[in-house]
Amino acid sequence: MRNNFKKNKAESAYFLLFDIIVANLSYFLALWLRFDLHFSNIPKMYLTSFLKFAPIYTVFLVCIFYVFKLYKSLWEYASFDELNRILLSTLITTIFHIVGITVLFNRMPISYYLIGALLQAVAIIGMRYSYRFTSLIRNSREKNSISTSNVMIIGAGAAGQVVIRELISSDKLVANPVCIIDDDPKKWGYFVSNIPIVGGRDSILAAAKQYNVDRIMFAIPSASPEDKRDILNICKETKLELKSLPGIYQLANGEVLLSKMRDVDVEDLLGRKPIKVNMDEIFSYTEGKTIIVTGGGGSIGSELSRQIASHRPKRLIIFDIYENNAYDIEQELRRKYPNLDLIVLIGSVRDYRRLDMIFEKYRPDLVYHAAAHKHVPLMENSPNEAIKNNVVGTYNTAFAALKYHAKKFVLISTDKAVNPTNVMGASKRICEMIIQSFDQVIKENKFDILPYLDLYKGPSYLKELKDDKNSYNTQFVAVRFGNVLGSNGSVIPLFKKQIEDGGPVTVTHPDIVRYFMTIPEAVSLVLEAGTYAKGGEIFVLDMGEPVKIDTLARNLIKLSGYEPDVDIKIEYTGLRPGEKMYEEKLMDEEGIKKTENDLIHIGKPIKFDLEEFLILLKEISYLSKANSDEIYDFVKKIVRTYNKEDL
């Protein structure tokens, strides 16, 4: 860093000295040329005027060049902007020279003015751009002296041209652009920075072989999801490393650099447009409100916190039992939103006394309950913990929301709650039933039948609901969706780690399918669903068509530059305990109702005996503390659609 600083200072000094010499020499040569290259023929009055004006002109020229930042530019990377500044500063100094020497000393020959200005401009421009050209030649030789990779650029537009220029000019990158692919036939056969545009997407495979391509860079940030999917599907057949430019906004911000090229994500191949939501609705819904997110440090909880923080809440409370996760999201939000009233608290949703204290102190308007155990195989081995954390934790949080008059309570649920074959899914179905129970209790004014789920020894720590029962009107809803790409514990991070380790990539079954959505998409839909809530609904998010996990694994291997089952093996390990071949969005008994957003539907609640459910709920909470194997049978009593025997 210090060496670069010294180098730049030295270059500026050299250019300053050069400008002083060339500015005066240019006008002297013009005078010399005017009188037939004979110094003795120059009239004394012209020579005297030139010598007297030279110091004045030198000071003025240096000042103008300094104002136009000609001594602050990195000429190694000079562009049209620098050329424009040279021409403008030369024009100003030329006008000053003509007016100054004429007014102060003597009128000079016309050829003196014209030739002097021309020689000065040519010398100054030539010197600076010859320096840039020399740097390019030097970088090119240095690159050629070491091992480089041949790069194919997809896209001859603005982004592609910037990437090509950086590849050529940078001395830090050992990559050599050799060909360009663009679907516009009018560009075929032409060149960008001497790199040929060899054809459209149909030419990718042939060009990769012809030019010995090692790496492909996708530089069409404005491409539609369908075009991007098709092109990337062709690219992956080359079995070469593939990188992609993030987005078109990078162009506007001047951020289209090679440092912004990223590995192609699997979501690039899902082939659908990003889900959009009505952000104005969400903004009016969250602005000025106190909001708590339980499990706020997890994948979904942290993204909820990010999106809520960007919509100007009165206060955001993040509640999580894992201090490292909570610390990470706290630091991120304090950095991005310094004026946000952010409270980060550590604790467990199992501990009602902790929740009661928090709700009593901060009185949240909106509650997003994302705290849960979600790993299917782990919960199969520890079913009691699934009940304690998911079921009792949801009940505790919902009770606190009711008691302290929160306006809305939104449960983050899962499609695994539909006809569950595992304890985790069954526990989340019980959580949905808890939400429906609280809604029914409010509508039927049956507050006295709510049980106290005390997992601790000693007297009950829950206080009676003492206010007027008509004042309790919290709207309880659940939002159900499937897998989110990149979340903690999802298959994508696991596959990437396995590929980095050289394989094998493990897939449970070649035909297993899942619904997928990105974390920001899922969270934005959760927020919008909250705006539609009236109480008791189970919102179901439309996640498009299901995707084969085996296909995802193979695509990810190919995009990493390897060939499935050749370079990286795929092993089928068999379905894990409690795992389905496919997930369902609705139970057979549930109907569907549309909302204003075509991607958000409302599942018709299944009726169940409220009082019987609440009695069983209290019993299973105590049974979970005993760590009894009877928990499976008891879950079956509550969730009639739970079918562990399927596996």
Summarize the model shown.
The protein has 20 helices and 22 strands. The longest helix is centred in the first third of the chain and has 35 residues, at 110-144.
Could you please describe the fold and organization of this structure?
- It is a single chain.
- This protein is of the alpha/beta class and 647 residues long.
- 47% of the residues lie in helices and 14% in strands.
- It contains 20 helices and 22 strands.
- The strands form 5 sheets. It has a 9-stranded mixed β-sheet with strand order 10-9-8-11-12-13-18-22-21, sandwiched between helices. It has a 7-stranded mixed β-sheet with strand order 3-4-2-1-5-6-7, with helices on both faces.
- Helix 7 links the parallel strand 5 (215-218) and strand 6.
- Helix 1 runs antiparallel to helix 2 and helix 19 packs antiparallel against helix 20.
- The longest helix is centred in the first third of the chain and has 35 residues, at 110-144.
- Residues 1-5, 247-262 and 585-589 have low confidence and may be disordered.
Major beta sheet, strand line-up? 10-9-8-11-12-13-18-22-21
Structural class: alpha/beta
Flag low-confidence runs: 1-5, 247-262, 585-589
Biggest sheet descriptor: 9 strands, mixed
Question: Over the alpha carbons, how many angstroms does the gyration radius reach?
Answer: 35 Å
- What distance lies between the first and last C-alpha atoms, to the nearest angstrom? 62 Å
Enumerate how many helices there are, as a single number.
20
Strand content: 5-15%
Shape: elongated
- Percent of residues in helices comes to 40-55%
Number of strands: 22
Mean pLDDT: 80
What multimeric state do the chains show?
Answer: single chain
